[in-house]
Amino acid sequence: MADISFRKWIRWEPHSPTPPTSTIVLTSPQRRFVDIRVLLPLPTPPDSELPLEQLEWAIAGTSTSSPVLNPKTKEVEYSHCVWSHWIDSLVNNRDAGADEGDNYPVEGHPELTLERGRMVNPASGRVEGYEEMWVAGEVRAVEGVGCIVLEYDADLKGEEGWVRGEGGEQAEVERVGRGMVVRLGGYVQGFLRDGGDVRVERWVWDGERGKWEKRVRTGSGGLKGGEGVIPVAFVTEVGGQMEVGDEVMGVGGRRWRVVEKSLV
């Protein structure tokens, strides 16, 4: 089941809840997700380039959810969730790890979910206990497209992926070249990592004006600035005409593949 989640607040133990970021998670029906967390305030005008320091965290990958029953009532008490990080703005390697949490319903508020667990606190760099309150957004098709997901996965060896050791021998240097774009309902989020450089974008559908509006864009190194580094225009303008398995060549010769598409 696809979902759009807006974070209302986060509480790192033992502190009080705070809303320090604009955080949105887009999760496709096949459970691919892009999670972008940007420190407030957002830019004015909204399509301005953000300084990289405002990107608290970006993650893309896949998630799983397993119901946990109350031993007495045998009813679902909460769901245990695992988010596997395929790309992580804080980790530059192909095994970016995972975080886990338990999602509890909030009585009387079906749109809310309370998440509890332990993960890396970006401010401290340590694994700490946390609570997050999430608000579910409406998932509806825009211009006939409910969801489309693109992925970029490169083997970045070769000249840039090898170095010479002291004895002249070659040694492999790991460089992550991966990206994911999720368009879900009226939102698009993209995250690209190319070695030590990262790029994130968030776009929102403006129904009154009938167009997509850029709300977040930031990047580093060779991925900073410019249009088309992440193929947002493709997924918003012609993505609806593509099918799973189709490819588009992006800026820098990156080949993005459609891996998922649905009306949901």
UniProtKB/TrEMBL annotation:
Instruction: State the compartments where it is located.
Output: Cytoplasm; Nucleus
* Sequence intervals crossing the membrane: none
Kindly give the Gene3D superfamilies that the UniProt entry links to this protein: Protein HRI1, N-terminal domain
Q: Which UniProt keywords apply?
A: Cytoplasm, Nucleus
Origin, by domain of life?
Answer: Eukaryota
Q: Does the keyword Nucleus apply?
A: yes
What's a Pfam family this protein contains?
HRI1
Family, similarity comment: Belongs to the HRI1 family.
Q: What is this protein called?
A: Protein HRI1
Q: What is the lineage of its organism?
A: Eukaryota, Fungi, Dikarya, Ascomycota, Pezizomycotina
